[in-house]
Design goal:
Blueprint (H helix, E strand, L loop, with lengths): L12 H5 L7 H5 L11 H44 L7
């Protein structure tokens, strides 16, 4: 094995990672104070999903009503067309 491989390197991983000082990354988190009223990520996700679901259902309901109106209109208009244009195909 050769002494230049990363596994046998003389450089420590703490020096590379920036650790090893008197204050590590975890100690820096103590300086951050978050107010207790900030909603959790899950709560924000749940609220966003509720809003999206409500909006989607409203749009789908509008589309369904529009399609139903179109269907009823075509049914009424189509009855006259179907009666006047019945074609018998030869067998």
């Amino acid at each position: 094995m050769n002494g230049a491989s990363p596994a046998h390197s003389s450089v420590s991983t703490t020096a590379v990672a920036g650790g090893g000082g008197s204050r590590g990354a975890a100690a820096g988190l103590d300086d951050c104070h978050f107010p207790p009223d900030i909603p959790s990520m899950q709560e924000r996700k749940d609220e966003a999903m509720r809003v999206l679901k409500t909006d989607l259902m409203a749009e789908l309901d509008k589309e369904a009503k529009s399609l139903e109106e179109d269907s009823n209109f075509l049914k009424k208009e189509g009855e006259a067309v179907v009666k006047s244009s019945i074609v018998q195909l030869p067998r």
